[in-house]
Structures are given as C-alpha cells and as structure tokens.
Specification:
about 260 residues, alpha/beta, Rossmann fold, 5-stranded parallel β-sheet, two-stranded antiparallel ribbon, Unplaced genomic scaffold SPHSTscaffold_168, whole genome shotgun sequence, serine protease, Sedolisin_dom
C-alpha cells in the first residue's frame, strides 16, 4: 500500500464467489513513471477464460465445410473425406501440406502451456498415438516443467481437455521433436500468462516453438494489459521463438464459445 500509495482490498466475484486482492487506483514515484508502463496485478481483475467447463458441442453440418475441403484439395496432398467429421494428425498433414514422415529434430524443442489446472495425461497420449499415429512409438512422452507451483496430475478424473489436445496434436504432428508440457500454477488468466513468459524470458534455454496459451476475451482486458502481453510475445520473437496461438475452437468463423471482440 505504501509503495503504490493505495489501499489493496479483497474483492469477491458475485457469480463465481472467487476472491482476489486488487485496488482501484495506484501511483508510482515520479522519477520512475517514464520507465514503468504497467504494474500487474493491481487494477486489472481476473477475467473468465476458456477452460474445459466452457466447451459445448455444436451439431455437425457437413454442408458448411464441404466447400472448404473441396478448395483445399487443390494442394498436392489429398484430403481424406473423413476430415469433414474428425480432424486427425493425418488431416492436418494433408490440409497444410506437412510431411507424413516423423521428423528427427532432437536439437529443437516445442513447449505446450497448461493453464487453469489443465493437466496432460501420458496414458491418454499413448492411446492417441496407438490409434492415430501408428508410425510413432506409442511410448513417446513429453517432459514436464513447473511454473509458479504448477503440477501435472495423472489421475483420469483430472485429465484436461485443452492440455491433452495441445500435447497430443503437437506430438502427433511433430513426433520426432522433443515436447515439454509447461504447467502454470494457481495464477490463472492474465496472471498465468505473465508468470509463464516471465519465467522463460529469464531463461537461457528457450524453446523453438511455444503454444497452448489460453484464450481471453479481448474486450474484457484493459488496453495496457493487451499491449503488455503483445510486448512480451514480441520479446519471445526477438529471441527466435515462434508462438502459435489458437484462433478459437471451430476456427475463425465458427467459434464454439460464442464470444466476439465486441463484448457480446
């Protein structure tokens, strides 16, 4: 309170009853103002993120996707008709012109982020590879890194839809590239993103590719937070790290969450 000339208090979300410590205004010394763009967490409250409980099933309508697959057949790889209903690693290889052979790039590394108590299951990965990538050793596994107290429970009851999806399709497409699952602790949402990137920006061993960042409705965060997140992503890029962020489940035009950037 004294450092920021403010009064931090406990706030309770009316619907979720989740409590968080925040303030409504803060100050920094005048001599430091030009060197500080943002202090977080202070005035930015946690926002609802796209976790497993947010998923809902949308009835499949093949007429909405058949023209898309027809157009994509113009590429050299033939797209299986089954990709109209289920997207497998083979579908991604065909749609994006990826090589079908297992890459052998042991010097590279891919990180997959896990937020909001999302855990990646080794047993599920084994089943996934046995079913959909029989050319990859089903005992292929991922490394684990904990950030801010993150864990990776292996109980089937704690399997994470998003975390499993990220790890399985990463290894399913790039099976010969070492993959690390990075579990971020209790700090969810924006704080979790900052905790993850802050940890790795201070590291000398950065991955070549990182993915798995959570989706947050942009209309729910202040511009200063959005700029700060973009800035740390640019720092990753400046050090040679490629960042892959999902456009939303269902793609750009069919977002299963029904969220837009206009708050409706």
């Amino acid at each position: 309170n004294q450092v920021f000339d403010t009064q931090f208090s406990i706030f309770t979300h009316q619907e979720t009853r989740q409590q968080t410590i925040r303030t409504l205004v803060y100050s920094v010394p005048a001599t430091l103002k030009e060197h500080i763009e943002l202090v977080h967490p202070t005035i930015a409250f946690p926002v609802l993120t796209q976790d497993a409980s947010s998923f809902r099933v949308t009835p499949f309508n093949p007429t909405t996707v058949s023209p898309l697959v027809t157009n994509l057949n113009l590429i050299s790889n033939a797209v299986p008709t089954s990709c109209n209903t289920v997207v497998t690693p083979a579908c991604l290889q065909a749609l994006y012109g990826l090589p079908a052979s297992v890459p052998q790039q042991n010097v590279n590394q891919i990180d997959v982020g896990g937020f909001n108590n999302q855990f990646a299951q080794s047993a599920d990965l084994k089943s996934f590879l046995s079913l959909l990538r029989t050319d990859i050793n089903s005992n292929t596994n991922f490394s684990f890194v904990s950030v801010d107290g993150g864990t990776n429970h292996q109980s089937p009851a704690q399997a994470g839809i998003i975390a499993n999806l990220g790890v399985q399709y990463t290894i399913g497409v790039a099976g010969g590239v070492p993959t690390t699952f990075v579990s971020v602790g209790t700090a969810g949402g924006i704080s979790g993103v900052f905790a993850a990137v802050e940890t790795f920006l201070l590291s000398n061993a950065l991955p070549n590719v990182t993915t798995g960042f959570i989706g947050i409705n942009e209309a729910d965060i202040p511009q200063s937070i959005a700029i700060a997140i973009c800035s740390v992503f640019m720092q990753f890029g400046a050090r040679g790290v490629s960042i892959i962020v999902a456009s939303g489940d269902g793609g750009l035009s069919i977002c299963n969450f029904g969220w837009s950037n206009h708050g409706d």
